[in-house]
Amino acid sequence: MIQQKIWHQLTTMNARRLLLNIIAGVVSCIVGSLFSISLVALIFSGELSQYVSIGVGIVLFSAIALRTTVALTSSLPIVIADVDSLPAAIVALSATSIHQSMVGASSEAILITILFTIALATLLSGGILLVLGSLKVGELVRFIPYPVIGGFIAGTGWLLAQGSIQVMTDVALDLANLPTLLQPDRLLYWLPGVGFAIALLLISRRSDRPWVMPAGIFGAVGLFYLALWITQMSIPEARVAGWLLGDFSQENLWQPLHLTQLSQVNWAVLTAQAGNILTIALISPILILLTASSLELVTESDINLNRELQAAGLANLVAGIGGGLVGYQMLVDSMLAYRMGAKDRWVGLISAGLCTFVLLAGGALISYFPKIVLGGLLLFLGLSLLVEWLYDAAAKMPRSDYAVVLLILAVIGFLGFLPGVGVGLMTAIALFIVNYSRTSVTRHVLSGATYRSHVNRPRHQEQLLNQRGEQTLVLELQGFIFFGTANHLLNQIRQRFNDINLEPLRFVVLDFRLVSGLDSSAVISFVKLKQLAHKWSLRLVFTCLHPSIKNMLHQGECLEENDPICLVFADLDRGMEWCEGQILEAVTWRRGRFMPLTLQLQRVFSDPDQVAPFTKYLERSQLATGDWLFHQGQQPEALYFIESGQITTLLERANQTTVRLQTLGVGTTVGEIAFHTQSPYQTSAIADQPTILYSLSVDRLQQMQQNEPEVATVFQEFMIALLATRLNQAYQEIENLLS
Questions:
Q1: Largest pairwise CA distance in the chain
Q2: How far apart are CA 359 and CA 353, in angstroms?
Q3: Do 133 and 242 share a domain, yes or no?
Q4: Rounded Cα gap, residues 79 and 220, in angstroms
Q5: Residues near 463 by Cβ (< 8 Å), separated by ≥ 6?
Q6: Which residues contact 35 (CB under 8 A, 6 or more apart)?
Q7: CA 338/CA 77 separation, integer angstroms
Q8: What is the pLDDT of residues 165-212, one digit of tens each?
Q9: Mean pLDDT, the chain, as a whole number?
Q10: Of 145, 258, 274, 298, which is least surrounded by CB within 10 A?
Q11: Is residue 409 part of a domain?
């Protein structure tokens, strides 16, 4: 289905749309190639600059593989992929480290080790991206703390800015080389590039027109050659003086790797770069997420993140096989094409085709590109990232988050990228613990007075439970419970126990329905809670325990067989019913003898003489345990009074399961709503034990209204009061849950 849709997009296009795609593709190829070549100059700088031509071939092949694959597989047609600056900056660190570690080795061995490091990083990144997308776990990337991402990106900006100076001067930017860089003859090599980068940054921040970037780049190239003409410096002289890239017009730019070269790889040195390689692979999905989120806002379209991860993964596998660099969907390139009016996949394919032409026949043209402009482009990229995360973010982020960005940037700047990654990971863990500990594990805090079981009891019992409801603390828990949140829960219970303004606490109900899990440290906290409960003579009631959580509590000896302190119930309703039963059993005046319906009805009729006229309209019946009184969807026939026994109303679900809604005992009524509305029963009713009922049918009620109007009026007033009371209880429960 997806392939058919893509084919339809490629084969249905009018002349105007084709022209817009061609223009956007040409501009994208030119701008993207120049930025990519500037990254090559960063990777192969200093003593490695002799390999720039090979690097140019690598980025051009990478662009072809990335642009073609992503254009054909992305969920958004105008997405353009290319080599990115962040992985390129890390590759540059690895290249320098490999060169320094292989002193005395042949230049060919050094080059091949670097090239295989690049290929391995790309293949690993592609594999991880493809697996993440295939497993549909791309959304997990969103849980990476935003300040940590910002710190990595700001650190990359610094590495790009630092490397840009070496691209322009072949001298590394550090304290030892500052005197050399500040010499008048050296200033000419990098100061104009800095001016070009700052000008490009200021213009790009004030204008988002698509022609600004190409115009700035070609304008800088034009000014450079104007300066050569004014100073009467020839092209060969400029190349010898280090103003231009090396002369590789006769070289074959792309030189794919071969298995026969494996013997020349220094595997010990390559293995030492495992940290950098893994960092590239782990950061790539995060950057794809940021790009996808930004493109969704710009294009007002929905992007399938998992599909984008798969597209980037496949593209990197193709690029890695040919020794290419890591790349993925690019925000600036895609936005540039979108604002130029391109709406189709052809823009990516056209730009890939032009990159192919440059790779095969454009070496001579590339060799004329000024290093000062390449360095300026690198500096522009670095400054853009630094300004975004140091200047813009200062006004948007909380101070604590901004401090994290500065911390990671400082570590990368002074100690290197890998220590920065380590600090970033530790910071991410610390942020998670701090932020999650601020989230209360308790979703609702209720009491037995504000939250009741679905057992409908006689009025005198209801009144007693309302009076002594504060003896029960109900805590509805949520999320993942670990030591910090479990300790907060412990303090919350301790605070309630010590509150002398409320009824002495007897029961703590812990509902785990919304708990996703807990760790071993949380189990220790619950064991401590059990010890306190034993000391305070409390009962702990656990409800809705998932089997895995229940097993952990058993293994931690928090729950035991025949435990007198910790009790487990299937759901909160059953747990509350048990607590209410314990409160009622403690009352010495509770009646244990049978009370006939005629005595129960005296609370309905203030005049005892009205009870007998009322009962003559009732019909007595009996139910054994398990007998059904009525079924869900059945048309109501009567209203029922319970003289003895117990009835439970159940909601029958489509999956053949039932949910208990109410349990009704002596002195209560069943089916009053359906009886008065004459609508089908919304629930089913079953006898929990032998039950004696008295029913009032619609016909008998009508006879009562005709023959005993005063009795019927008192009965109707009672029913109105009963329904109003239940409605008020429902409102109170909702209010307590919302507060």
A1: 126
A2: 10
A3: yes
A4: 28
A5: none
A6: 82, 85, 377, 381
A7: 10
A8: 877 887 777 777 788 888 888 888 888 888 988 998 888 888 767 667
A9: 84
A10: 258
A11: no
